[in-house]
Amino acid sequence: MSKDELRLLDFWASPFCMRVKIALSEKGVAYASQEEDLFGGKSDVLLKSNPIYEKVPVLLDNGKPIVESNNIVYYIDDKYPSPNPLLPSCAYGRPVHIFEGGMGIWKSKGEELEIAKKDFIEILKKLEGAMGDKDYFGGDNFGYVDVIAIAMTSWFHAYEVFGDFKVEQECPKFGCWMKRCLKRESVSSVLPDPEKIYQCVIMLRKMHGIE
Amino acid sequence: MSKDELRLLDFWASPFCMRVKIALSEKGVAYASQEEDLFGGKSDVLLKSNPIYEKVPVLLDNGKPIVESNNIVYYIDDKYPSPNPLLPSCAYGRPVHIFEGGMGIWKSKGEELEIAKKDFIEILKKLEGAMGDKDYFGGDNFGYVDVIAIAMTSWFHAYEVFGDFKVEQECPKFGCWMKRCLKRESVSSVLPDPEKIYQCVIMLRKMHGIE
């Protein structure tokens, strides 16, 4: 990896910057550190990358700015799942990939769609594996990763129609987890009607010139 | 809580917005939702709150914008630890409060400092409790919460000098965890010399007109 790919807007005494550097070091990832003069003048790239807070740390991934230390650590762990996964319950196949995987389905057709479908099911199977024999990704209780992942399932009906498959049949354990989560008022009251999302996806496909 | 305090820049079909709504619902927190017209025109408040990505969700907490769904869920869980903690290993006394607690120490003197010191030790004791009998906040392995928390300890020497106390004596279990983490190359190579931080804090105290 070239050092230019990852650039950290840094300040040596900031524990928030240290969080990011520890996470990068855990992953063995090379990066360039750019020390900011917080008491003198901040760099243009800092003012441009984090215009609201003008705060370090900012991680630039090929120029794309990621802000706020907790968020950057999460981003690093998601981009480099190994070695040393930091959020172990979803070390392999993070929920974020569900949406990307699903996009592969609704944005394609024919042979391409078949490949996207296989990839998508593969992502869910990895998540199933990460859950092990627990009820939730968070263990015995509905937790952070469950919140992140269950929201993604609101689009599953649309994926299933376009991909001609059933998540429950392909990944029964994942299906059970979905049902378990949907029993929670917080989830069932928030997720919209799957049919409405399906209609929305039909519109998106038209906008993207598919079919 | 007044509905005006929390405002969500929302889009009904976005699973990223659903994450935030599920988390708010888990906490039983009231909020106002502002539906954005992503295909027509985005609101000024969205463009202003998230100028880089111009993306929903944005959570406005009394006007202060929090961006990116993972980050917002973390923020909500930190601000409202109960009911239903989402990141259970640090449900009570989140690492973020270490820095705020420490600031109470170095920004004060006299009686005020004594109160700040007690508060700070209380925060560490709660964190100890959250760790239970595990080696790390992440369980058997160094994980996300460990990264977030250990970075904060780089300022402890300064707190100890100004507060005239020793973390290791007050919170021996927390002290053991610190030593365990410091054995990791990723941590020891990143944390700066405590004496340098102490000098930095002396300068900060002068800048703030303390002593």
What would you note in describing this structure?
The structure is a homodimer of 211-residue chains. By secondary structure, chain A is of the alpha+beta class. Chain A contains eleven helices and four strands; from the N terminus they run E-H-E-H-E-E-H-H-H-H-H-H-H-H-H. Residues 89-93 of chain A have low confidence and may be disordered. In chain A, strands 2-1-3-4 form a four-stranded mixed sheet, with helices on one face. Chain A is globular, with a radius of gyration of 20 Å. Helices cover 53% and strands 8% of the residues of chain A. In chain A, helix 1 links the parallel strand 1 (6-10) and strand 2 (32-35). The first copy, chain A, has helices at residues 15-27, 44-49, 69-79, 96-106, 110-131, 144-150, 156-163, 167-170, 172-182, 185-188, 194-207; strands at residues 6-10, 32-35, 58-61, 64-67. The relative contact order of chain A is 0.09. Chain A folds into two domains: 6-86, Glutaredoxin, CATH 3.40.30; 93-207, Glutathione S-transferase Yfyf (Class Pi), Chain A, domain 2 (Up-down Bundle). At the A-B interface, helix 1, helix 3, helix 6, helix 10 and helix 11 of A face helix 1, helix 3, helix 6, helix 10 and helix 11 of B.
